[in-house]
Amino acid sequence: MSNTTNLQMPLLQAAQAQKHVTVNDTFQTLDSVVQLSVKDRNLTAPPGSPADGDRYIPAASATGAWASQDGNIAAWQDGAWNFYNPREGWRCWIDDEDKLLVHDGSGWNIDVTGGGATTLKGLSDVTLAAEADGHFLIRDDTAGVYENHVISGDVTIDKDGAATIANDGVSNAKMADMAAYTLKGRNAGTTGDPSDIDISGLTEKVTPVNADLVLIQDSAASNAFKKAQVGNLPGGGGGETNTVSNIGTAGVGVFKQKVGVDFELKKINAGSNKITITDDTGNDEIDIDVAEANVDHDALTNFVADEHVAHGGVAITAGNGLTGGGDISANRTLDVGAGTGIAVNADDVALSTNSRTRTLTFIIDGGGSAITTGIKGDLEIPFGCTIQQVTLLANQSGSIVVDIWKDTYPNFPPTDADSITASAPPTISSAIKNQDSTLTGWTTAISAGDILRFNVDSVTSIQRLTLSLKVTTT
Question: How confident is residue 177, by pLDDT bands cut at 50, 70 and 90?
Fold first, then answer.
């Protein structure tokens, strides 16, 4: 046997050399596991700067130097991590939690901190929230614990066991059911419990006398209920006397007369089809409106000057360039005559396409020699337009390819990346001229203020070139 049974410490062998190494390893093991305490059990990776002798329990899924050492004892000794496998019954103090745990053979699952419980807080099946007078322990079978709760609601109980019913705590719904047509009260001349008073059998007194009592609610005394003699009621018991009359002297009143106990009111009637009267029951209103379609404006009189116009006496006259018009007794139309360079559309009047056509011209001159390649100059376009056609005119037969670059003034100068000619730049091939209106792939839209730059990509023989762009203003 080379190791001890429980702590697995190495044993000295007969005639062993360097016995001090084995003895020191044994001391290291004893120093690590005897009176065992660790600094933390929740880390998954080793701390950055451990002190010699520091011990930890690596948490689940440990990484780095602690990989595969979950739940073991990791001790930093002589600049390296040494690991010890705990056995069932080992005890370990957790420094940062102030807890004493016991290993049950599968993990540090038994908490024996503080020993046996001496208060309710120490019992595992008692959960105490903030404590206060009058709390009771109530069993929660779902959670399997006892919890403290205060008795609240309509009835409360204090720490001495005294029960109190809150003011207004007993609602009608919580009282005992009552028989139909009964009142709750005391129908006796002595003090005692309330009882149900049956009113279904009460007889009616058709002709009350002044000495009879009735129950009334006094609005001037916080709606308190009081008793009153019939003789003291308005009208001496015969009810209140009311009158109805029309107020004021102008207009027509709606009250007609009183017949017995009924008040008769006049109906409101529309005297002609020019007025509508509607009973707006939802808003408790009578709506009176003018039916404008039934009003004959030509029959109206007493207008202020110029407020009412005779349709046949006022006309719209067509001015220069316009036709149509007439009096205002019917809808009239004014037509715009189309002139040279003007197109009349359904919704507007605009310049014709020919009137909006412009030519942008750029001349490249070699000064008596063949034109060279490269940038030849820039041209600012002061108006928005669309390119329709490009024309190249050379002083003699030859070949040339000119690229056109475009950019805004703030981004000046344009570069090759700003080419608008795609794969079809203006070209003359062994000829003296060329014209292209197809402009395949071109970016033909030009905004006011854009800068055009002209660059000769290649050239042969040609000494002077006129490049013109036919555009339509926008």
Answer: confident
CATH number at residue 452: 2.60.120
d(CA 89, CA 104): 6
Residue 137, pLDDT score? 65
How many domains does the chain fold into?
3
Pair (88, 137) in one structural domain: no
pLDDT band (50, 70, 90) for residue 213: confident
Name beta bridge partners: 99: 94
Task: Kindly give the pairing relationship between strand 126-127 and strand 145-150.
Answer: parallel
The pTM of the full predicted model, rounded to 2 decimals, is 0.33
Residue 439 in any domain: the answer is yes
- Write b or e for each residue in 403-415: b if 16 or more Cβ atoms lie within 10 A of its Cβ, otherwise e: bbbbbeeeeeebe
Indicate if the alpha-carbon torsion angle 65, 2, 33, 25 is positive or negative.
negative
Domain of 439, in residue numbers: 355-473
Q: Residue 160 class from Cβ within 10 Å (0-12 exposed, 13-18 middle, 19+ buried)?
A: exposed
Given 128, 157, 186, which residue is the final one in a domain?
Answer: 157
Higher pLDDT, 189 or 183: 183
Residue 210 has a pLDDT of: 74
Q: Are both 106 and 129 inside the same structural domain?
A: no
User: Residue 371 corresponds to which tokens in the numbers above?
Assistant: 């034109």
For residues 87-95, average pLDDT: 92
CB-CB neighbours of 122 under 10 Å: 12
Taking the CB of residue 119, how many other CB atoms lie within 10 A of it? 8
Phi, psi (rounded to 5 degrees) for 414: -65, 155
Buried b (16+ CB within 10 A) or exposed e, 63-95: eeebeebebbbbbbbeeebeebebeeebebebe
Is 387 in contact with 439 (CB distance < 8 Å)? yes
Please measure the distance between the N-terminal and C-terminal CA atoms of the chain and give it in whole angstroms. Answer: 103
In a domain, 387, yes or no: yes
Distances (CA, A) of 360 to 16, 386, 415: 106, 11, 20
The answer to whether position 422 is within a domain reads yes
Better-predicted residue by pLDDT, 406 or 118: 406
Q: How far, in Å, CA of 437 to CA of 186, rounded? A: 111
List the beta bridge partners of residue 442: none
